[in-house]
Amino acid sequence: MITLYDFPSGHPTKSFSPYAWRVRLALNLKGIEHKTEWIQYHELEKRLKEFNIPPSATEEDGTPIYTIPAIYDPSTNSRISDSLKIIEYLEATYPDTPKLLSPGTEVLTTAFEWAEKQHMRRAIWPFTVLKVAPSLDEKSSAKYVGIFEAVINMKLEEFGANTAMKDKLWKDIEKGYNTVDGWLRTTSKSPESQIVGPWVTGKEIKLADIILAADLAWPIAVFGEDSEEWRRIGAWNDGRWRDYWGLVKQLALNLKGIEHNTEWIQYSDIEKRFKELDIPPSEIRSDGTPAYTIPAISDSSTNVRISDSVKILEYLDKAYPDTHQLVDPGTEVLTAAFAWAERKNMRGPTWPLVAPNTIISGLSGPCSAKYRRNFEAWTKYQVEELQSNPVLFDKVWKDAREGYAIVDGWLNAASKSTDEPAGGPWITGKDIKLADLILAADLAWPIAVFGEDSEEWRKIGEWNDGRWRERWGLFKQYAIIH
């Protein structure tokens, strides 16, 4: 497991450095297992030397500079500092993860990083120091404030009391955001702009997006998402920054940001293992027998054990009210109906497509035998017949395509309304909700079984004018297993 070195503040997110946020976002996007080791700011150089982490840069006089972020990867025994060097390392070492750099864009991305720093990062720094410094331990605060005062040649208290200077800086900050907004608006001058996608370079998140997202995570981590400062920034440029954060915050927080790990259980052992763990059944069958199915969770902080995905998500919303909420008040009935209808039209028809591969190649021994029995009893299809009968094979694919088309019709309904659209890429607007997770999970299913480069997924992805391929492009950066 990779160790990410960062220094903590006293704010809820702890991490506030935009450079550390870059690496954290990249690791989350790539789904690389990692943990954070916190180092007090005043001990950075001492501790990084103890860990044999190289300096991130060198002064003109040859003095080494030790900064975060830094990582240690035990799988390769590599130690690296500097956010861009770390991301380049992750690209080279984990080639099967989402790529953040497209060939030929390296120079452009480097220039973007430099220019974005001048316009978005520099002017806001003094305001973040005012908030962060009091939250650090005494020695770290003194060092952090000392560096700040040396750079701006002014005492922190003097800056805090200088209303005229702060007003001017806020104007400079807004002017910088306006400049970056202008870059992002260049695509709107192209007649093809509507098919480009929500990210800087198109439909997939890239390093430029990580840089931009980290510099939005910074003021949010320091001031808070409900703060006057963030509301001010978020509203600039017709709400672009609030909307952009709505896209990236699920990646920044791993949606709810709840620390967790996965325990793997063989399919044939689910009931036995759940009983050992005191996990309740997910439902009671009509004959009164309990049904034990995954997923299930055990929350040690509340001593609660729950099975059934929707029940788990409802619990998480209630137990962790300060995290991203998946069900808005008043939408519970509509969401329940959506879940049932989507299951009927997408998940049910998809099962015969993925089951043969799962039974024959994905599982083995008792697990495969039990899964086969359940599948054949439920669907009345025989696995061998699905593989050998071309007429039945074509029917199964036709049924699935018709089901996806029905759901596509629901998603198209908003475009036929004369009212103002929901205003975002998700089902109910700018924020991802439970309905989006239901849909995302049922797209992740065939991709997990067949592979994203498979003929089967390409076929599904192209249905309904490529809606499912594009939809997965939005979802896949949140598909992270811990």
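The record above closes out task 2.4. Task 2.5 opens with a second protein, given below.
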Amino acid sequence: MERREEQAEDGERVIQYKEEDSIGKLLELIPLDLIPDILLRLPAKSAVRFRCVSKLWSSIITRPYFITSFAFMSSSRLRLLVCVKTRDKRRLFVSLPQHEHPHTSYSDVERYQMDPTEFDFGNYEPYSYSVHGLMCCGDFMGEAVVWNPSMRQHVTLPEPAEFRGKSYFLGYDPVEDKYKVFCISSRRKHDPLVFTLGPQESWRVITNSPKHYTPKWPMGHRGVCINGHAYYEANMWCEVDDFAQWEGVLVSFDVRYEKFSIIRKPDDPKLFPLLLNYQGKLAWVCEDRDEKKLESSLRFWILEDEEKQEWSLRHYLLPFQIDPRRDSIWRVYLSLEGVTKDTGEFIYSAVRFEAIYVIYYDPKTNHTRRVIYEGLEYEDSDSSILDVIIYPNHRESLMSLENVPRFVSHIEWNR
């Protein structure tokens, strides 16, 4: 392919391919009313690139209505996003389609790398699953980072000055199309804070909320956002027989009206610190195993009615033997990452330096499909894997974080 190099006003080289010029001329022949429909069917990577075709195309792709419509279209092509952090603090992101044909290799895989930053001390924890295309990680003693992998953007939010020791969660309001990060202290005396992702925003105090606090070490306690409500596990002090003691509870945050509600946990001693979105409802996971029968099962407590605080119990027998779940074919240890939003398949995965192993198990049909993605290694790096974060049901988003107030950041995305 021939290419042409020109010198831009800022001194940087601009590389243009003749083939792209031809494509651009061809696209000019498309009727204007068909352009948005065509762009909505593209992956986010292509849509972002096509902003350079013309000012018209750029204005279409950056319109709020188009961004909302694109997110809706992306809900039908959900992805499994894998974030791998090595000991040298570099991060590799691998985006895999969830609904590839079984027993075939991935053909639609995206990967990109994020180099370490001078302020990244390796303390960022994933406080939330993927929320409408965005993720939120936070430092228990510092700031929160929100990133949009589809746009290769991130923003480090200003650190709340009110207190130290806190957890961050991300919520989305589908009515007003707004993202909000809320901050919960690890101490009872502080009120929650909320930050709307948008220009000229800042942390706001939410008064008259139930006094609660989050565990000091929130590993495994990720929040879940479902239909405008963000759920997370917390503690609160209760009076029992004239004695004050803490009690573990479930908290629901109404993202639109910024109100907190306390929900009683299911009365089950085997509750696991894992909350999931189970086909549009909150599920609290319990795991059982019978070593005599060499079988394991999974129990979901489903929140059927938040206002009435009604839970229902569902029981599933798993295609594994006893815990830990060592797959007999791949000979790797699997962990439950989530449930596919549309088909209800359980997602089990294992990540090694040489490959990503994923098993999708459908409890209704007892069918299992396997997917393996090889070639995970970093280029020019012999660092071992330090941590792996899995984001199931991730949708691509064109939401821009450029105008969100931030700390100065030095993160660079490398292809």
